[in-house]
Automatic annotation (TrEMBL):
Signal peptide: none annotated. Belongs to the sigma-70 factor family. ECF subfamily. This is RNA polymerase sigma factor. The lineage of its organism: Bacteria, Pseudomonadati, Pseudomonadota, Alphaproteobacteria, Rhodobacterales. Residues 123-174 form the RNA polymerase sigma factor 70 region 4 type domain. Gene3D superfamilies: 1.10.1740.10, Winged helix-like DNA-binding domain superfamily/Winged helix DNA-binding domain (1.10.10.10). It comes from Sulfitobacter aestuarii. It comes from the Bacteria.
Length: 190
């Protein structure tokens, strides 16, 4: 990893910025663009980071990459915008690296798997189709959401007592067909 140090000094010719990249590379900048850019970069970096030191590191890294791009011959028409984009990208990269993730265990899963419920529904629908026609029609209405015996009687056109006995016989047949206990609740069927 390269260590960069940015130093600004004022002399009678204006502000002079020097960037030392490790010990073998030295870039001397005497640029109005960089001297105007540095305060903006550090302000923005402070907003994007947790501490002042991290903000300075972020700003230095952005300036370093800008200088490397310029030194490499890149044609950058708006260095201030380029540096701000670099700064934001570096900040995002650090956020991603810093994000802590937790590994999930089997007992931590928040949602139940859907497959067993779907299989049970498919088995119930198949069992309903095997019922006698009058019982299958009633159970299909119940499965569609109609649970009032009075409403079922009105829809089918038979007395309410007949509806109750057909539903009882259909549920008993479904319990036998699906292997449920005789006293298992109706909610397990529909």
């Amino acid at each position: 990893m390269k260590i960069a140090m940015l130093r600004a000094s004022n002399n009678r010719n204006g502000t002079r910025m020097t960037i030392d990249i490790s010990s073998d590379i030295h870039i001397d900048l005497h640029s109005d663009i960089l001297t105007e850019l540095w305060p903006r970069l550090t302000r923005r970096a402070r907003r994007l980071s947790r501490s002042r030191e991290e903000a300075e590191d972020l700003a230095q890294e952005a300036v370093l990459r800008l200088c490397q791009a310029l030194r490499g011959g890149a044609q950058i028409t708006a260095p201030d915008r380029y540096a701000m984009i670099l700064l934001h990208n570096l900040a995002r990269q650090r956020w991603r690296q810093r994000r802590e993730t937790e590994s999930y265990e089997d007992d931590m899963i928040g949602t139940q798997p859907e497959a067993p419920g779907r299989i049970a529904c498919a088995e119930l629908q198949a069992a309903i189709l095997r019922l006698p026609e009058d019982q299958a029609a009633l159970m299909s209405l119940v499965a569609a959401g109609e649970t009032s015996p009075k409403q079922l009687a009105a829809q089918v056109g038979v007395p309410k007592g007949t509806i109750m006995s057909r539903l009882a016989r259909a549920r008993a047949s479904l319990r036998r067909d699906l292997g449920l206990l005789q006293d298992s609740p109706v909610s397990e069927l529909l």
